[in-house]
Amino acid sequence: MKKIAIFLILALLGVSERVFAKDPFHWEFINVEIDLQENGDMLVKETQQYVFDSAYSDLRYRWIPLDGIDRITDISVTEDGKLLNIKTDIESDRQWIQWTRPVNGPERQTFVLNYRVIGGVAIHKDGDVLHWTAIFKGHSAPVNATKVTVKYPLNLAGHVQSYQSAIPQKLNSQTVEFVYEKPLSANQGFDVSVTFTSGILNMQHAQNHEGVSKEVSIGLGLMLLSGLVGSLYVTKQSHRPVGIEGGEGGAGA
Q1: Which of 109, 119, 115 has the alpha carbon at shortest distance from 95?
Q2: Residue 122, domain member (yes or no)
């Protein structure tokens, strides 16, 4: 009986150690630059520095939710200015980016991710909105330091109406910086939102939050052409900016 009790205690200790074990890494910093283009595209640059305490998996990944945007293109990952081989895939409405890098530990690894976000700006009669989850919530390890820089084109200078995030620091007429002064704990994200005067950008792809959606209009037209008779009730779309309650994003090793 005594042996059984000892065995059970050891087994429970083993389970507890596995359940509560922490990943042997964290992010020293994640800095994000968002460069808004005149056509409404966002060129995003993420600089992530991993700190590994010991040897670990060589797989790195980043996933970005696609809900509320058209697509993500021009994806690349570099280390020390050298392009890395990456694998990209879309699964469950997420853009996945994967690459490998051996870890000897303890060591630091710094990666720069670049990508273009198409259709990420929301059109609204009271002002167009750039909203982006700059620091993803899907991370199991803490992030010690965070800085997000938003650059916008010259024709938007003087037309920014508001910010919704940490207190911004205006660097010049086209650049604003958000610094989160506390470490981000696991699963804690950081969003930035900038509202500017509507109609200035020459957007080919945007999230329209006014009136009836294109899909509904096409559906109504097809029904009328086919001679369907009935009462058609079209619900006006929400005026909520895209992304505020959208997917979170994630990364890890």
Answers
A1: 115
A2: yes
**CA–CA distance, 129 with 195 (Å, rounded to integer):** 4
**More confident: 102 or 227:** 102
Q: How many domains does the chain divide into? A: 1
d(CA 135, CA 30) in angstroms, rounded, equals 7
- Decide if 38 contacts 62 (C-beta within 8 A): no
Nearest-angstrom CA–CA distance, 209 and 191: 20
Of all helices (H) and strands (E), which one includes residue 103?
Answer: none
Q: Is 242 a member of any domain? A: no
CA distance 119 to 15: 46
Q: For residue 176, tell me if it sits in a domain.
A: yes
Checking 10-18 for CB contacts under 8 A at 24+ apart, the result is none
- CA 163/CA 32 separation, integer angstroms: 17
Residue 241 lies in a domain: no
Which residues is 180 bridged to in the sheet? 146
Q: 4-39, pLDDT tens digit by residue?
A: 454 444 444 444 333 345 789 999 999 999 999 999
The half-sphere exposure of 49 on its side-chain side, counting CA atoms within 13 A, is: 11
What CATH number should be reported for the domain holding residue 31? Answer: 2.60.40.1730
Task: Give the phi and the psi of residue 179 in degrees, each rounded to 5.
Answer: -120, 125
What pLDDT, in 10s, does the model give residues 105-163?
A: 899 999 999 999 999 999 888 899 999 999 998 888 999 999 999 999 999 999 999 98
Instruction: Break the chain down into helix, strand, coil percent, rounded to 5.
Output: 15, 45, 40
